[in-house]
Amino acid sequence: MKTSKLSIRLLWYITPLVILPLLFLGGFTLTNVTNSTKKQAELIVSRFVEQQQQKIFNYIDSFHSITRLLSTSPVLADFLAREPESKNQYIERLGELMNVFASYSEAYPDIVSINYVAPDGKSDAFYSSQLTPAPKSYPFFDQVLQSNLRQQQFMISKEDGSTSLYFVHPIYNIDYYLKQPQQLGFIVVHVEPSILNASILEAPFNNTLNLFLTTKGQILFSSDYDLRGSYLSEYELEQIKSLADYGKLASIELSSIDKEERIIYAVQMTDGDYFISTTPKDLLYQSGKAISLITALIVIISVISLPILIYIVVRNLLLTPVELLGAASHRVGDGDLSVYLPAHTNDEVGVLFNDFNHMVNQIRHYQDELEEYKHHLEEKVESRTKALEAMNSKLEVAIAQAEQANQLKSRFLANMSHEIRTPLTAIMGFTEQLLHNKDAVNDEQHLSTILRNSKHLLELINNILDLSKIEAEKLAVERGPCNVVQLIHDIDSIIRPLANEKQLAFNINYKLPIPKTINSDTTRLKQILINIASNAVKFTEKGSISIDISYNSEKQHLQFAIQDTGIGMSEREVERVFKPFEQADATTTRRFGGTGLGLCISKNLAQLLGGDVQLISEPGNGSCFTIQVAAHLNAEQLQNEGFIHSYEQLSPSKDVQLSFAANSFDANILVAEDNPDNQLLIKLLLQTWGLEPDIAKNGAEAVEMALVNDYQLIIMDMQMPVMGGLEATQMLRHAAYDGPIIALTANVMKTDVDTYIEAGCDEALAKPIDKDALEQVLVSYLHIEKDSQNKWENLLKSEKFQQINDNYRSKLPDYLSQVVQLYRAKEWEALRSLAHSLKGSAGCFSFEAIHKTAGQLENALRSNQTEQVEQCYTALIDALEEAS
């Protein structure tokens, strides 16, 4: 009877609670699917338009930057700075300016022409990649004169329906004695907007029409070429402006184009123009209709079937188990603890049955425990008391360990403070002596002391940074070829002088055979060996230091055993010596100094290199450190030729070619560095090596100088004002500069170096400047440039080249005849082309007079300087007649 009533009530509640939400959810889903389809299509259109807008913004900003660079060009400033003393000087300056304009035009193909316009509108320096004459005026020039903007752009529609872009930037002569700068003219860059044309032709859907409108409704660009140059009606233009202000899509019928209803999305550009994308409404929303019908059918089926299924499932899974649970609970309430519910499925009801059975078992268990507690209460109290005493003992040990750690930290901080202050005291003291005592003797000794203490201080800081990286698991090691003999030779050159100062014997023993080269991190391996070997010298008062080198072929490990006859260590001290911030004891720190970081770092580095550091020591009998690193030998190195078998092979080979002492170079080098002190330091280093560099104060100046001059190598600082080194390198590579560029930066993390290399740098050197590293990099790349030059000089001396040169000389009379004929016929364009050809070919065959005069004639013809044409023509004729 209860089950029947509960079933009826369940059905009564399920019907409205399920059907009504289903109906609501179905209607919501149907509406949401339709809206979602529309929004998805609208989102595609809006994203497309925003992407095109951003692409156009980037394109326009890039040419604004180029125009700004042109307006601040040192060559242009030199051209405008002072009046020329003669026509030849004016032509020479104009030619240099034309070369700068030509280099920008070649680097950016969209540039049609570059024009320097005086304030009165006269074109004084005009360059056109299409060899067109300078325009007499610009339709927007009055607007430019009335505007106070630093940079302006104009879109001018042509008669053929196409549109050109003009970028304008004023030129000022800054005079600090005037209240405001003097305006010298304008730079006008004419660009054929390839990106705008390409953006207009892209479309997110078929039948999409893209338009680029002016504020007056004129169509400048259109994916339908026939619409270019036409106008929209004022009503349609006002609707588009309203859409652009609110940034949303709307359905509009553009009667000026067709009678079809379109969905339109519009955005406003920086100069007030509008970019719009239109798609037929029926095409945009067609895919949502079928989805809406399917959704409606699914909702109707769900409303009918879901309540019935819920009722059946709930009755079988819930109502019957509830009856069983209720009857069992009633029996437990009456005191019957023998109740047990049958096993059920592994769902929530089954868990409830199991929990009920567990509850009954716990009640029985607690009743039994209660009886037991009554008999054994004293035993429980005594056991709990002992547990509390054990916990108090552990707490006392933890407090003692915390106090020991605090003392260790305080000792390390005091030790580190002493280690850092000691070299700082020497550096500051000797520096003050050199600054305030001009007549001080032993200046060289003082400077050597400052340098030695600076290196010691740098070593302390590097140790702290290395330990921090190790603990953060961010210390990376490299794997590259490492010459074993050269490595031991470097260690010997550092440790032997230290041992000689203390009158200690220093021996290096090779247990042959050993590999010639292993694949490991040379810098880190050298750091380990120097650290442990220098410690051996430090803690040895008399006796000897020895290094035994051997190879374990089974494990493929290279092994170094460093033995000393020093103070030695106890077993307890051996356990502590590889921990950070710890030394043998406090007396050791006071007697010998040190931070307690070196051995900890060495052990971690050895483990990173695939090996370990082990120690055997006795107090008073010295210590023996055994360093093992993985050799990582390849198949070729495992051959017999890859090993050293005789002591005659133990002499290290020196590459004398990687120093300026063994070479002499005549190279033009550009140094881009904004810091005056760094400029002076780098210039001093290069002058020591016989090189006289040019200095650029920022990236923009470096780009300008590199495009005008011929540099064999560029040293580029990455952090500079106006334009950074990264952007300057990218611009130089884009402008076809193919010489080596060496990055100079304080950011030498691998990710930073990869960024510089990807931008076009060939190498990356760290600050502070390492003289040896800078010397090696410069010599390496200058060798490459010198080899190329030698090959060219050998080619010029070859018999084959002489034959070609004689053949070219025989053609000079014919060239002379062509120049005379074209000049008399006044065919200026053909004459300019011939002069350009003669300039290039004569320079290749070392006819410098022809090369120079042909270039002057070409510049005069290109800039339409009719007065200079005759003079340059006469000079070219004389040069051709003399060479013939």
From TrEMBL:
Residues 797-884 form the HPt domain. It is an enzyme of class 2 (transferase). It holds the Pfam family Response_reg. One of its GO terms (molecular function) is ATP binding. This is histidine kinase. The lineage of its organism: Bacteria, Pseudomonadati, Pseudomonadota, Gammaproteobacteria, Alteromonadales. The keyword Transferase applies. It catalyses: ATP + protein L-histidine = ADP + protein N-phospho-L-histidine. It is found in: Cell inner membrane. It is a multi-pass membrane protein. InterPro entries: CheY-like_superfamily, HAMP_dom, HATPase_C_sf, HATPase_dom, His_kinase_dom, HisK_dim/P_dom, HisK_dim/P_sf, HPT_dom_sf. Residues 316-368 form the HAMP domain. The modification Phosphohistidine is found at H836. Residues 363-408 form a coiled coil. Residues 415-633 form the Histidine kinase domain. The keyword Coiled coil applies. Residues 668-782 form the Response regulatory domain. The chain crosses the membrane at residues 12-30, 290-314. The modification 4-aspartylphosphate is found at D717. Keywords: ATP-binding, Cell inner membrane, Cell membrane, Coiled coil, Kinase, Membrane, Nucleotide-binding, Phosphoprotein, Transferase, Transmembrane, Transmembrane helix, Two-component regulatory system. Its main location: membrane.
